[in-house]
Amino acid sequence: MAPSPALRIGLMSRPPWSAGDVATRCTACGICVAECAFLREHGTPQALAASFDPRRQDQSHLPFGCSLCGLCRAVCPEGVDPAALFLAMRRATADAGTLQLSPYRGLLSYERAGTSRLFTWYGLPDGCRTIFFPGCALPGTRPRTTLKLFDLLRGNDPSLGMVLDCCTKPSHDLGRSGHFAAMFGEMKAYLLAQGVKTVLVACPNCHGVFSRYAPELEVVTVYEVLARADIGVARAAGGEVTVHDPCVSRDNAGVHAAVRTLLGAAGLRVREMPHHGARTLCCGEGGAVRCTAPRLAGAWTSLRAAEAGGSTTITYCAGCASFLGPHTPTSHVADLLFEPEAALAGRVKVASGPLTYLNRLLLKRRLRRTLPVASSRERTFRGDADGTRRPAGRSRAALVLLVLAVACAVALFILGSGMPGGSVFR
Ligand code: SF4
Ligand code: SF4
What we know:
By secondary structure, the chain is α/β, with parallel strands linked by helices. The protein is 48% helix and 8% strand. It is built from 21 helices and ten strands. Helix 14 crosses helix 15 (253-265). One iron/sulfur cluster (SF4) is lined by residues 26-33, 44-46, 72, 75-76, 78, 80, 82.
C-alpha cells in the first residue's frame, strides 16, 4: 500500500538544503549553549547554520552529535528550534550522499527486524476503532507487562486491537526520510483503511511519530488512559521517587501529569529534578548519538544521574529505563503499576539482548492464539525509498545471525542458566 501523498510531500519533496531562519533569528545569546555539551563543543546554532555544508564529508558527522532532545528550543528566548535545524542537517547529508550508515548498522537491523513479517502482527477484533501500539522496546524487555497493560485496556474496550510493529523512528532520526515516509505511510494507510481512529501508545517515541505524521488519528499514551480510568493501582509501602520525563515527551504535559497521578495513586511522593517536564534532559540514547559520539551521549546520562542523586528514578520509556539503569536506579512506570515493591527495589526481571527478540516472537504467538480477531496481517511491505536496503545476501546473513542468536537464547532459557527475566513463559 502506498504512503499517503501528504506524508510524501512533507518528507520527500523538500527544497535543497537550507538552514531556515535559524541563522537570522538566533542571536547567539548562548543560553542553549550553556545547557548542552554538543553546542559547547561546536558553537551556537547561528554559527553552525551559517557554516554547515552537507556535501562536505568532513562536516557530515556534525549533526549526528546532537541528540535531537529539544532542550535548546525549550530554553530559547527567541523561539528558535535548533533541534529542527540539526534534523534538517541530518536529512541533508542523506540527500547529498554523505550520510555514513555503517555506525548505525545495529540500530537499523533492530528496526528492520521490528518491521519484518517475522515480528509484526496486526490483530483487529470486530468493530475495532482503537489499537494498542506498544512499540518495540516494551514487548521485548517486558512482554508480561505488555500483556497485562493490554488486558487492562481491553477491560475498558473489548474491541481494542493490538499492533506489533515499529514506528521507524530510527530511520526518521537518521535522516532516512524516504524510507521512513514509505514505511510509516504504509502502516498509517492500512490502519486508516481498517477504520482505526485512535492509537494508544506506550512508548514516547511512537507518540511523537504518530502525533506528528498521523494527524488523522487520535494518539494517546496508555498512562493517560490509566490515570483517567482510576484502575486501582497496586500501592507501594510509600516513599519518595523522582521522574525522568523522556525528552521526546517534553511537550506532552498530559503524560507528565498522568505519570505523576499514577505514582501518587501508588502511594509515592515525587521529588522533581531540576530538569523535568518541558525542560527535561535526554537520557543519552536520543538521536543515536552513542553510535558516533559516545562521549556526548555519556554527558547527558551523567547529568541525568547526577540530578537523580541516587533516588529511584521512574520513567515511561523502556529505552530510557535501559539506558539509565546502569547509572542510576531506574524503573519503568509500568513495572510499578503491577509489581510496586519489586520495582522500587530494582528486582523486576527485565530482558535484554537476544532474549528481547525471543520475547517478541512469543508475545506475537500468544496473541495470535488467544485474541479473537476479525482481520489480521503480518507485514510484508519493505520500503526502500532511499536505496539503502542491504543487498539480499547480506540481509539473509543478518537474518541467519538473528535466528542463531534467538536459538541460543532459547537454549539458555531451557537450560535455566540464569537468563535475564521478563519472558512471557514465566
Ligand atoms: S537538541 Fe539537545 S543535543 Fe541537540 S543542540 Fe539542542 S539541547 Fe543540544
Ligand atoms: S538560546 Fe536561542 S537565541 Fe540563544 S543561542 Fe540558543 S538558539 Fe540562539
